[in-house]
Write a structure and sequence with these properties.
- With 442 residues, this protein is of the alpha/beta class.
- Helix content is 31%, strand content 23%.
- The chain has twelve helices and 22 strands.
- The chain is globular.
- It binds 5'-O-[hydroxy(phenylacetyl)phosphoryl]adenosine (DLL).
- 5'-O-[hydroxy(phenylacetyl)phosphoryl]adenosine binds next to α7, β7, β8 and β13.
């Protein structure tokens, strides 16, 4: 059978939990939740202490809404319990460890039992399948391998689905292109900005990115917009879907997007119970459709059960579509700690991406610089953005003005726009840094 027939003929066989009713799913959530809070209380001293301090006991969880009585867990808790204080199983039962890079403080360490790894692989497989990937396909995995959960998490999921995995990791862009040309993968897994780097490098080599064998991309690990989806889909002639996750909750595959609807990632609610809270008043749990901070409780994890983890990701919950029982998450606007407050106006890099990509002369390569000019009390935002290769230097003067005006209209803040030469801004190998804060430290 050729690759084309694999893609065209194999109908997706869904997990039973993907097709159950909302009532059945909520009953499953309740029993798993009751088990998880009791398990965490009995096995992790931090949870026992926090529950006791808040005056709640696992037996208080009688219905799903009772979860709101339980205390939150934060990244700070994981840091304070560094390295293994939050593990609920003895070390010999921990089959794998991952960790955050720790560039902004102590690393956060997470662990998995063999069963956790199997569940994780199943959920990544489910996400990839939802996004169009099928058993038998070749999958080029450009998420970084190592302590970051992206590479190995995506790898195990693609293997579990029955794909042929090409474990290239992030970086070495020239080599990525050679292997895409030679191995002819059907799908690519990468951060959206790294896929952009690859497409860009192809064009520089005179290769049309739309001419490769790639048909699907499953992208995540950083915020991206509908405009970026459109950019990547048209440049590369692919279908691009979202995959979401975070190491503290599991890794990639907490939620995944269906290729037939492309309307946001379905949260796999048989394994995670999501809530949206008011980021400024966390005691308020918001209803579906309302914007706020996403909070997760794990329902099946053994090594690191996580209760009401504050992700800092800002989004909203929407009803399920392609998988009706599982709610979707809206696109992540940004993280509450990535929000720029510029002269009283809140701003996220994704808003700039959305606006810039609607201006044909401007490329998706941009960065935001925050400065406080000498002797001034006001902060200054400069959007540095590359012009498209096809547009002349003279042709971009008006585009810069349009960007400035559109930011003023849609975001409400004044900024400077500096259109720079193609290829002059830093490219990503994984998660791209968009914000450069050069303001003097207080
Ligand atoms: O980035 C896990 C992952 C790997 C997800 C590969 C998808 C693909 P962390 O390094 O712990 O884990 O970073 C988690 O990245 O809280 C979000 O802020 C952001 N993030 C992850 N996926 C998305 C997405 C991995 N699809 C943090 N859209 C999260 C927007 C995302 N932001």
């Amino acid at each position: 059978m050729t690759q084309e027939t694999v893609a065209a003929t194999s109908e997706a066989v869904l997990d039973r939990e993907e097709t159950i009713s909302r009532d059945e799913l909520e009953a499953l959530q309740l029993s798993r939740l009751q088990h998880t809070v009791a398990y965490a209380y009995d096995r992790v001293p931090l949870y026992k202490r926090k529950f006791d301090e808040a005056g709640v006991h696992p037996t208080d969880l009688r219905e799903l809404s009772d979860l709101g009585k339980f205390p939150f867990t934060t990244k700070e808790d994981l840091r304070l319990e560094y390295p293994f204080g939050m593990f609920a199983v003895p070390q010999h039962e921990v089959a794998r460890i991952h960790a955050s890079s720790g560039t902004t403080g102590r690393a956060t360490v997470v662990g998995y039992t063999k069963k956790d790894l199997a569940d994780w692989a199943k959920l990544v497989a489910r996400s990839l399948r939802a996004s169009g990937v099928r058993p038998g396909m070749k999958v080029h995995n450009a998420y970084g391998y190592g302590l970051f959960t992206g590479g190995m998490g995506a790898h195990a999921g693609a293997e579990a689905l029955g794909c042929t995995v090409i474990p290239i990791s992030g970086g070495q862009t020239e080599r990525q292109i050679t292997l895409i040309q030679d191995f002819k993968p059907d799908a690519i897994l990468a951060t959206p900005t790294y896929l952009l780097t690859i497409a860009d490098a192809m064009m520089k080599q005179g290769i049309d990115p739309a001419s490769t064998s790639l048909k699907y991309a499953v992208l995540g690990a950083e915020p991206w917009t509908e405009e970026m989806r459109h950019e990547l889909e048209t440049t590369m002639n692919i279908k691009a879907c979202d995959i979401y996750g975070l190491s503290e909750v599991m890794g990639p595959g907490v939620a995944g997007e269906a290729v037939e609807t492309q309307d946001g990632s379905h949260i796999w609610e048989d394994h995670f119970r999501p809530e949206i809270i008011d980021a400024f008043d966390p005691s308020v749990v918001l209803g579906d459709g309302e914007h706020g901070e996403l909070v997760f409780t794990s329902l099946t994890k053994e090594a690191l059960p996580i209760i009401r983890y504050r992700t800092k990701d800002l989004t909203r919950l929407l009803p399920g579509t392609a998988r009706p029982a599982h709610r979707r998450m809206g696109r992540i606007t940004g993280r509450s700690d990535d929000m720029i407050i510029l002269r009283g106006v809140n701003l996220f890099p994704s808003q700039i991406e959305e606006i810039a990509l609607r201006i044909p002369e401007l490329s998706p390569h941009f960065q935001l610089e925050l400065t406080r000019p000498e002797g001034q009390r006001m902060d200054q935002l400069t959007v540095k953005i590359e012009r498209r290769e096809s547009v002349s230097v003279e042709g971009v003067a008006s585009a810069a003005k349009v960007l400035q005006q559109q930011i003023k209209i849609h975001v409400g803040s004044s900024c400077a726009v500096d259109v720079v030469e193609p290829g002059s801004l830093e490219r990503s190998n994984g998660k791209l840094r968009r914000i450069y804060d050069m303001r003097p430290k207080a």
